[in-house]
Amino acid sequence: MAALLEAIEIKRKMVFEFEDAPYVCMESDVSTPTARGGQTLVRLKMRNLITGAVFDKTFKANDKFKEPDVSLVPASFLYNDGDGYHFMDQESYETLTLDEAKVGDATDFLTEGLMLQMHKYNGNPIALQLPIFVELEVTETEPAARGDFSSGSGTKAAKVETGMTLRVPPFVKQGERIKISTETREFAGRV
């Protein structure tokens, strides 16, 4: 039998089962009552690992959840085609396929050979966990004019090899490899 977790024990990035589906906690906030006899409440911002839906829900501190049969396996991105996005499980060397809905906006970071983690629920692939940073090549950007900070922020638009566009500092040139945060989708440095 799977271990039970109390709501008050659930912290950021923990996985738990709610209404027969696996969820990951994105934020956890504990509210302790000021009056005697009040109940401690836990507000969780959670994402369904199967559908990707995100919502807030409040639970009593002693509400219990099962630990789901979710595992993280190392995988590498191979390619995408009409059938979906294909990855290689680095432990079993089998090819795992996810449809576009499950990959979501992670497509902005997927390049051939990218190492990442794949969530499996009851043995089936359901979601991706990207690395914190990815390195991508800048394919298009305007050259920065000397002293041009008219945009106010001192940044310019750049398009990377996956087709994503983001703001970068003026010194970044076409053909350079840059580091991008997968959580904030922002420039994090040159490689």
From TrEMBL:
SUPFAM superfamilies: Nucleic acid-binding proteins, Translation proteins SH3-like domain. It is found in: Cytoplasm. It comes from the Bacteria. Coiled coil: none annotated. Residues 72-126 form the Translation elongation factor P/YeiP central domain. Keywords: Cytoplasm, Elongation factor, Protein biosynthesis. InterPro entries: Elong-fact-P_C, NA-bd_OB-fold, Rib_uL2_dom2, Transl_elong_fac_P/YeiP, Transl_elong_KOW-like, Transl_elong_P/YeiP_cen, Transl_elong_P/YeiP_CS, Transl_elongation_fac_P. The keyword Cytoplasm applies. One of its GO terms (molecular function) is translation elongation factor activity. Pathway: Protein biosynthesis; polypeptide chain elongation. Residues 134-190 form the Elongation factor P C-terminal domain. NCBIfam families: efp (TIGR00038), PRK00529.1 (NF001810). Involved in peptide bond synthesis. Stimulates efficient translation and peptide-bond synthesis on native or reconstituted 70S ribosomes in vitro. Probably functions indirectly by altering the affinity of the ribosome for aminoacyl-tRNA, thus increasing their reactivity as acceptors for peptidyl transferase. Belongs to the elongation factor P family. This is Elongation factor P. The gene is efp.
